[in-house]
Amino acid sequence: MKTLLDGLAMVEGARWHDGRLWFAHWGVGEVIAVDLDGKAEVVAPGPEQMGWAFDWLPDGRRVTTGDAVRIDGEVLREGGVNEVVVDPRGHIFVNGIDGGFSFTEPGWIDVLSPDGSSRRVADDIRFPNGMVVTPDGSTLVIAESVGGCLTAFDLHDDGSLSGRRAWADGLGPDGIAIDADGGIWTQTADTFAHSGDPSAPAGAVVRVLDGGEITHRIETPMPCFACTVGGGKLFLLCNEWEGIEKAAEVLARRTSRVFVVDLDDVPRV
User: Fold this and answer.
1) For the chain, which terminal residue's Cβ has fewer other Cβ atoms within 10 angstroms, N or C?
2) Helix, strand, or coil (residue 169)
3) Tens digits of per-residue pLDDT, 199-229?
4) Angstrom distance (rounded) from CA 109 to CA 140
């Protein structure tokens, strides 16, 4: 494992796109892209807040969340949302919690079309976070951070969801990623932040299959908030965290780091 970038405020929303890692630079309001040599550039503005993400439509336009859902900067729908994922058909799935940043109220998933229409497709999500769509486009999986699980839905041609079920339990998921073979990379619960155990690792990410089988595991020197795979690499986006009440202090310290490791070097379990 090596450090790809450091000196960042808070890093989230990892994506592999056009041969580079892209991520949301929270608290600064930037979309940053970095290549495998560590050459980074600010490629677009983002909301100057925490709690936003981005993805791309099949035609290449970028969808960004935050205080509104925007396509290439133009407002598609007003109102705050958290994560976003676009399926191969162009359906835009966003999630959030009514009433703002809350760890107690139930959350939801909405599906939007590029024409601005939207509808609710799932609710009672226990703090909705990262979402992925399986490579064949048949399943949407969401991280329920408070629930400590990954939850899967059958994904239909019209963007509707059905067949809610557990993909894996006993985790500590935030931002998640899916690889070409359908394995999901996610944060675990046996870390210091989740367990309070001083002997636990600061961060850890596992690869988990549908049904809960864990195949790989890697530990990080800081809590890992998001990850993605691409170019034969696993990217780990890590931040200090001292609770929402101290978020401004943590952002100001700019201690966040992006780590990278060859997928072939991630230990098998």
Assistant:
1) C
2) coil
3) 999 999 999 999 999 999 999 999 999 999 9
4) 11
